[in-house]
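Hey, can you fold this one?
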Amino acid sequence: MEIKLLKTLDQTNIITISTLAKLLNLSIINTLNLIGKTNTLQHNLISCQNGKYRLTNKLNFLKKELIQQHLLQNHLTYDCIILDHCSSTNNYAMTHIEQLADRSIVSCEWQSAGKGRFGRTWLSSIAHDITVSIVYHLPIDFKLSLLPIISAVAINRLLKNNRIINKIKWPNDIYHSEIKIAGILVDNVLRNNINHIIIGIGIDNIINLERNQFIADLIINLEQVLNEFKLFGFAILRREWLDNCWHLNKNVSILQNKVVMANGNHCDITEDGALVVQTHNGTQIFSSSAISLIVN
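Sure. Predicted structure:
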């Protein structure tokens, strides 16, 4: 209901509470409560002046047709689902995985409990940030461990194309000025010898890019790196990941359950995307999803 309220205000510019209540088919009291709740979710989205309500800032709503039009200009065809609100686009995709075709996009205006590694959540700004899950059907022998690495390369390229300086933190977080601005979570379900892959991506829209074009450009970059991987293997993309890594040749600490397991110099990643660290005990390889990295 919050998104319906915001879309109504977006279309009407400035409006009295009684007219707004009629458009929403709510009582005036319920409409006021909804405004209060929406402003609690995101500070000062709606303002009131002389008894009339309006959006404080212009919001950037998604349009399925625009995303698909941008993709078609690059000869790409995707199914597209745009939700007003969901807890997590990856959760939605997983729940509906049997109905989602290869090359499906799930996105939303507001994601309230986005998933990250170690059960972390990521909250998106309403009608501003990018929250999207892309579904692919990949062969059973596809090296799934490389998907986070490949996806990070795609996002790195996308942000660079928009003049956003960024670096990759192992395995697939994207940082700008030492602040995380993007993350990736890959889920998969095996059905009939086909891997149904869900690549969930969240990006902070730090320079207010137009979201429909931004999502289309993200898909275009992801398609490109997937095609490069299929044609040429991992070697070229591995080099690109390393060239854009935040902590290559720097001292790092490897943690599991917040406990330091090892300290050393990050010197490489393997052909499977595992982290290679030179420690006092020799070269060690870390690949578990249960570990994290701190740059010292």
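The mean pLDDT is 89. Let me know if you want another pass with a different chain boundary.
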